[in-house]
DNA sequence: GAAAAGATCGGG
DNA sequence: CCGATCTTTTCT
């Protein structure tokens, strides 16, 4: 089988909105207990920096957000509502505090349970807080460009669950593949 | 110390 | 619409 191409650091070290859009269609891979789990990214959200009131980084550098303020290409994973994990990829440059949340995957190969939504995505991929801070250019967790795929349209919509963020709640910073049935919400 | 709220999900 | 469930941050 043809080997997919792992995304380089430079892919993540760019404008967060561009990264969020470009991540659509890419393959997220997690090697866990010798088993490779893989899903195609179909929905993302951009959290663009300290001035974005929906972003955890808007609180400044805290123990939790230090990963977001670190170098790009690392995983930022946290527990939300006491029961669900959410996975992000750090973008831009060290000190910027931006990341892209992965919200939904289309399964590539066997995956247990739904991958439709950030909490379920992490459960199906075996992602939890032990992954927090991991470099996504290693061999355990990474994102790769698939060898080939059909062209698709990108839809931009407001982010989910950020009503507290004032004006930022309305910004079109959620992106998904038009017509894909694994997108968590229209 | 204590309290409140949260980038969610599933059940009623 | 509401409860589960627990971490992080903020307030006293």
Automatic annotation (TrEMBL):
Enzyme Commission no: 3.2.2.-
Biological-process GO terms, alphabetical: base-excision repair
Single GO MF annotation: alkylbase DNA N-glycosylase activity
Keyword annotations from UniProtKB, A to Z: DNA damage, DNA repair, Hydrolase
InterPro entries, sorted: Formyl_transferase-like_C_sf, MPG, MPG_sf
EC class (word): hydrolase
Nucleus as UniProt keyword: no
Record keyword Electron transport present: no
CDD domains, per database record: AAG
SUPFAM superfamilies hit by this protein: FMT C-terminal domain-like
Pfam families: Pur_DNA_glyco
Family: Belongs to the DNA glycosylase MPG family.
PANTHER family: DNA-3-METHYLADENINE GLYCOSYLASE
Name this protein carries in UniProt: Putative 3-methyladenine DNA glycosylase
Organism: Noviherbaspirillum saxi
């Amino acid at each position: 089988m043809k080997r997919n191409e792992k995304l380089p650091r430079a892919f993540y070290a760019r404008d967060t909105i561009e990264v969020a859009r470009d991540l659509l269609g890419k393959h997220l891979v997690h090697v866990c207990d010798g088993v490779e789990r893989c899903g195609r990214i179909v929905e993302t959200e951009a959290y663009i920096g300290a001035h974005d009131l929906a972003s955890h980084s808007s609180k400044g550098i805290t123990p939790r957000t230090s990963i977001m303020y670190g170098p790009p290409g690392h995983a930022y994973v946290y527990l939300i509502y006491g029961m669900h994990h959410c996975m992000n990829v750090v973008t831009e440059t060290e000190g910027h505090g931006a990341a892209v949340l992965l919200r939904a995957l289309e399964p590539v190969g066997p995956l247990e349970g739904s991958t439709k939504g950030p909490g379920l995505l992490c459960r199906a991929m075996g992602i939890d807080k032990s992954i927090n801070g991991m470099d996504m250019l290693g061999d355990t967790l990474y994102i790769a460009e698939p060898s080939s795929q059909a062209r698709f349209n990108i839809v931009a919509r407001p982010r989910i669950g950020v009503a507290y963020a004032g004006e930022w709640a309305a910004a079109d910073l959620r992106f998904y593949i038009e017509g894909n049935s694994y997108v968590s919400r229209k």
